[in-house]
UniProtKB/TrEMBL annotation:
Residues 55-373 form the RNB domain. Pfam families: RNase_II_C_S1, RNB. This is Ribonuclease II. GO terms for molecular function: RNA binding; RNA nuclease activity. One of its GO terms (cellular component) is cytosol. Coiled coil: none annotated.
Length: 479
């Protein structure tokens, strides 16, 4: 059973300045992120919202959604139940293809964007909000078109059968992670997801057995409080989030199997760790004093670590390298030579976030056709080879945006504190770049500093040399 949430791990520092002091618009402009949506594409979205696709036979199941607080672009709704000695997972995914014609200004703009991008002050949606936060979103209270995955699990959590088809669904509740975690700790989860901790834990155990790598590293987020002030938050991943992610992973695994068996599709791929990568990590554990028995797989070592402990955090920072290089692989005919995702421990596909990710709309359509024994629609099949490059560009832009926004807020929160000293953890040494990556304890800011004399996992003191909010830069040095 998951441990209760430790609220002490939620660290925050408020920036005592109005939000306008940080110009996120300028950051987006610099990265070429569009402001607003083209009128022709919006008009097409409005037409689709006014005349949604005909609803398939409604599924009388009390689905619920589970997302970050305040979310409106709701891709997924879930319902979990027992089936004999096992379980039945129903996962409804927004049927975006029913709203977006394969050709036209709306489809063209989604290809230009590739994915929804998130800034601290707003999102830049893949689809106009008339769809992403309106007619296509699985908001509670109304029947919506959806693609429903029905997956049977045995008592250990292994899938024994999977079905996917279009249906009309109705969400009965919009849940968020923090409140749902409180409910889970109190033993009062919504009936539709009462089994989520149990199924999630089983799936996580199976993932470890496959060699799946779960890096649940606490993240530094930029958020704005009710008073409009910007805040840096060091936030651990909640257990309920981990369990919910397992449902999405399960669905992606089933989707990949359908496409591989059908000989056409789009996979999310990552080569498994090489022996050389694992050996480098093993050396890191020796330096950090972390036990790694010779016969223990790397996934088992990682599963036993706590990202809030300095030595563990340093090791997890090194382990991130194992998950770099993920991409998309399209195939039509023979399966790709490298069809696995090393982080998942097997073949995997993205099919659960079509409101926010372009690839999911196409991979979902492939799965629907293959499972029903129909030809894959030409508009989906012919687009597959072009999707990897489009999605890679979108992933890169999202990473650039996250990095720039975090840098801007970090420089702003440190400005005016030049000369002050801060406790910090050495996360990683990068000798090839002659620098170390450190994480300040409070405010939770990542920084680079000279590496001389430092060791990974150690707790040191650094001094702020300078902070330039306009340039989004700051400099620290060990003392």
């Amino acid at each position: 059973m998951a441990e209760p949430v430790n609220l002490a791990c939620m660290l925050a520092r408020t920036i005592l300045a109005p939000p306008k002091a940080i110009d996120f618009d300028a950051i987006r402009d610099e990265l070429g992120i569009p402001d607003g949506y083209p009128a022709a594409a919006v008009a097409q979205a409005q037409e689709a919202a006014a005349e949604p696709p005909p609803l398939a036979d409604p599924l009388d199941v009390p689905f619920v959604t589970l997302d970050p607080p305040g979310s409106r672009d709701l891709d997924q709704a879930v319902h979990l139940s027992r089936r004999g000695t096992g379980f039945l997972v129903r996962y409804a995914i927004a049927d975006v293809a029913g709203f977006v014609e394969p050709q036209g200004p709306l489809a063209a703009e989604t290809w230009r964007r590739g994915a929804t991008l998130y800034s601290p002050d707003r999102s830049t949606p893949l689809h106009p909000t008339e769809l992403s936060e309106g007619a296509a979103s699985l908001l509670p209270g109304a029947h919506r078109p959806a693609v429903v995955w029905t997956i049977e699990l045995d008592s250990a959590g292994e899938p024994t059968a999977a079905d996917v088809r279009r249906s009309a669904v109705r969400s009965v509740a919009q849940l968020d992670y923090p409140s749902t975690q409180v409910d889970a700790d109190a033993g009062r989860l919504h009936p539709s997801i009462e089994l989520l901790p149990q199924i999630g834990a089983l799936r996580r155990l199976l993932g470890r057995a496959r060699g799946a790598i779960n890096l649940d590293i606490p993240d530094t987020e930029v958020v704005r409080g009710p008073d409009g002030r910007w805040t840096l938050v060091r936030r651990a991943v909640l257990p309920i989030e981990q369990h919910n992610a397992e449902i999405s992973l399960l669905t992606g695994i089933c989707a990949a199997r359908i496409m591989l068996d059908g000989g056409v599709g789009l996979l999310r791929t990552l080569p498994p760790p090489t022996p050389e990568q694992v050996e480098l990590l093993r050396r890191a554990t020796a330096v950090l004093g972390i036990a790694w028995p010779p016969s223990m797989p790397v996934a088992e070592v990682i599963a036993g670590l706590d990202g809030d402990r300095p030595r563990d955090a340093a090791f997890l920072e090194d382990a991130v390298r194992l998950l770099r290089g993920a991409g998309y692989t399209a195939f039509d005919g023979a399966p790709p030579a490298q069809a696995e995702h090393g982080g998942v421990g097997g073949p995997y596909a993205h099919v659960t976030a079509p409101l926010r990710r372009l690839a999911d709309r196409y991979a979902t359509e492939v799965c629907l056709a293959l499972h029903a024994g129909r030809p894959v629609p030409d508009w989906a099949r012919t687009a597959l080879p072009d999707l990897p490059a489009t999605m890679t560009a979108a992933d890169r832009k999202a990473a650039d945006l996250n990095r720039a926004c975090a840098g801007a807020v970090s420089a702003f929160v440190l400005h005016g504190r030049e000369g002050e000293q801060f406790a910090a953890t050495v996360l990683q040494l990068e000798p090839q770049k002659n620098r170390a990556i450190v994480l300040l304890r409070e405010p939770p800011v990542r920084a680079h500093c000279p590496p001389d004399g430092l060791t990974e996992g150690s707790v040191i003191t650094v001094q702020l040399v300078s902070a330039d909010p306009a340039a989004h830069r700051f400099v620290v040095k060990p003392v």
